[in-house]
Amino acid sequence: MARATVHLLRHGLVHNPDGILYGRLPDFHLSEVGQKMAERMAEYTADFDIVHLRCSPLERARETMEPVSRNHEGVEVVIDDRVIEASNKLQGRVFSASASSFADPRVWWHLRNPLRPSWGEPYQEIVARMHEAILDAAAQAEGHEALIVSHQLPIWMARLAAEGRALVHDPRKRECSLASLTSFAVEDGRITQVSYADPCADLVPAKKGKKFVAGA
Question: Which InterPro entries does the UniProt record give (predicted)?
Fold first, then answer.
């Protein structure tokens, strides 16, 4: 039986003082706290039996991967567009505690259908690309472990699908914190188990009263 474990690591905290929904926009980098998160995850995964590394092309994901990859010398990091952030028609707009684009009537049309969703990439398409990437990583790491750095929504979609749960959800209830690890056990090309770890929980800043939008 072909077995592997594929870990999906969400990137660390991004420097985003204006509360912009950055989506796939370039030039959004890890903050100082985000860099600490990346270093902690490098320590956390240092003894994992990782033989394959894969990463979203966005800067915040690459910066999270960098210290992790240092602890697995000789393992090349594969950049994979399939694990990129979901596309979003609202990217570039401000959503913060003090200024929100939700007050703009032009935004409302994009929110008309949460089942698809109407504001961005369909959930089923996210699931399909993430599922392919996970199985490819599992095949590369047969008998060992692989690690992929991705983003909150793609990781959460992959988990919901693997657990047979509905894809439509309340974003506030996602169990996929910054620099957290969602792990998939794969046997013969089939995901058999999902687990979750949150080693950086104490580093995640509180949202209340702050211009803070959690990176996706």
Answer: His_Pase_superF_clade-1 (IPR013078), His_PPase_superfam (IPR029033), PGM_Phosphatase (IPR050275)
Instruction: Enumerate the H helices of 20-80 as residue ranges.
Output: 32-44, 59-70
Range of the domain at 64: 3-203
The Cα angle at residue 15 between residues 13 and 18, in degrees rounded to 5: 120
| Tokens describing residue 150 | 């991705």
Judging by DSSP bridges, how do beta strands 3-10 and 145-150 pair with one another? parallel
| pLDDT digit string, tens, across residues 44-99 | 999 999 999 999 999 999 999 999 999 999 999 999 999 999 999 888 888 765 55
Global confidence as pTM: 0.91
Q: How far apart are alpha carbons 47 and 68 in whole angstroms?
A: 11
* Beta strands 181-187 and 190-197, pairing class: antiparallel
CATH of the domain at 160: 3.40.50.1240
Classify residue 211: in a domain, yes or no: no
Residue 171 vs residue 82, higher pLDDT: 82
Task: Report whether pLDDT(174) > 50.
Answer: yes
Helix (H, G, I), strand (E, B) or coil at 208: coil
Q: How many domains does the chain have?
A: 1
In a domain, 212, yes or no: no
